[in-house]
Amino acid sequence: MNLISVFAIAAGLAMDSFAVSVSSGTTKIKGKFRAAVVIGLVFGFFQGFMPVLGWVLGINFTGFILDYAHWIAFFLLFIIGIKMIEESDEKLIDIQNPYVLLLLGIATSIDALAVGLSFAFLNESVLFPAFIIGIFTFVISFFGVYLGDKLQSSTGRYATFIGGIILILIGVKIVLENSL
Question: Which ranges does the record mark as transmembrane (predicted)?
Fold first, then answer.
């Protein structure tokens, strides 16, 4: 697989993480730089790890994973989105909570698992693309947190509500893409 194709895949996979990072940046986070690094690392790790996992599982469990992965991603994003909406006029969701970050990391990287499965079917190497995907996702997620912070300062408390809606819409998009 050529480098241009790898970067195109990385960009496509990173978009969900970028959108969630922007939503995360709209919440009140102490230590924005540290939070941006942690969010970028979590999203980058899962986006880089899931293709490898998909590649490994590709031989044995392809049908099961492909049949249900989009529903798992939808469920996780929907629950977190609803929580953000509910808390938009109260206190903001704690994006620095390790459990919330773990769920978001998994939910936004389910499609990367499917990419790993496709690499297994095509008999393509996965390690280099997974590394590029992880690095690309880290960078775009890091800057997404700062973009969200800028949006929050201009949209106020409604930014968290909008962020919750975005997460739900990403989940719906994943289900629709995999149901058609």
Answer: 6-23, 35-56, 68-86, 98-121, 127-146, 158-176
Backbone angles phi, psi at 10, to 5 degrees: -60, -45
Total domains, the chain: 1
User: Does the model's pTM come out above 0.85?
Assistant: no
Using alpha carbons, list the distances in angstroms from residue 64 to 5, 46, 60, 110.
27, 20, 9, 13
DSSP code for 174: H
Show the 3-state SS of 33-51: HHHHHHHHHHHHHHHHHHH
Residues 14-62 pLDDT 10s: 888 888 888 888 777 778 899 999 999 999 999 999 999 988 887 666 5
Q: For 68-117, how does the pLDDT look when each residue is reduced to its tens digit (9 = 90+)?
A: 777 777 777 777 677 667 666 554 456 778 888 898 898 888 878 878 87
Nearest to 40 by CA among 24, 29, 52: 24
**Tokens 């590029």 label which residue?**
132
